[in-house]
Design brief:
The protein is α+β, with helices and mostly antiparallel strands and 91 residues long. Strand 2 and strand 3 form a beta hairpin. The longest helix has 14 residues.
Length: 91
């Protein structure tokens, strides 16, 4: 297991119609939104997404399978400290 050397907090805006059951966001949609943030902030290719995928592999996010889709809880996304901490705000 790798040691977390630095954390980065990212605020992600979500619309109500993007959520399942009012609080779950699909994993691939979240990955796409992180890609858009990378472009907006002119970050390195997949810099945020790699942190996201690594933290997911270490089970740092509250995730659940809903109707065969892997989803992240937008109300309480974090299980523990991760290199990419997610904060969701409804737009």
């Amino acid at each position: 297991m790798k040691t977390i050397t630095s954390t980065e907090t990212i605020k992600i805006k979500v619309k109500k119609e993007e959520l399942l059951e009012g609080k779950w966001i699909h994993f691939q949609l979240l990955s796409k939104k992180l890609g858009e943030i990378e472009k907006e902030k002119k970050l390195a290719y997949k810099s945020l997404r790699n942190k996201f995928y690594n933290s997911r592999a270490c089970n740092k996010y509250n995730m659940q399978d809903i109707a065969g889709l892997t989803c992240v809880d937008t109300k309480n996304p974090m299980k523990g400290k991760a290199s990419l901490e997610l904060v969701f705000e409804e737009a």
